Task: structure prediction
Amino acid sequence: MAGALQGRRVVVTRAASQAAPLIALLEAAGAEALVFPTIEIVDPEDFGPVDDAIRQIDVYSWAVFTSTNGVERFFARMAQVDKDARALHGLRIAAVGPATAEALGQHGIRPDFVPDEYVGEGVLEGLCVRGVGQGTRVLLPRALEAREVLPAELSARGARVDVVPVYRTVPGAGDPEVLERLRAGEADAVTFTSSSTVRHFVRLTGGVDLSDVVIACIGPITAATAREHGLTVTVEPEEYTVPALVAALELHFAERAAD
Result:
């Protein structure tokens, strides 16, 4: 599989502030990364809810983090009110997956629970097994716009869930040069790491023929969104992480070369 991405042109749709790890992995595998940021990560319009939650952090039994962005933005806000990881003493911490767990680790937090399946449903099942239910107070720092499965299902089981926005995802500008290369058929693959990257990519590139382009999605939620927008998903790793996405893309092109 060595060199499977050599010379391949792969579009990266992540926010510019998050794209570096994916770009580095693609370039290390020999690909040319075509950076086309379809989203940006910005502050919420109101920090009041998260500031209130931080001030009364002792009332919560669990804090659940569903993204690295959520971790970084939450701890940055804690620093603004002169608090750090010590304020979470006594809370149990859940992370949606290994990347989020690693981000927590950089702040001195080892999660009590990381599900085997890195989506909201996996977190939900594990939390319920661990006793989250009637009367449990759960803090969920996350994007303003996100899937409602986790808070809705926890609430249905009697938990009191405080969803506090710590960031917003807004449309990105893409890149005119990359768009022209897409139109000219010069891209071999497009990578998507969230549903929002799919939606805004389609908005920015409406009408571009992608029938010969490999569509690679980080996980099932993102893949479902891609299919809803008429894209044919070719690559979807078993583990929903950026390294696994690149590895799956390498495997796809290696297998195609062997045919």
In short: The chain has a mean pLDDT of 92. The first helix runs from residue 20 to 28.
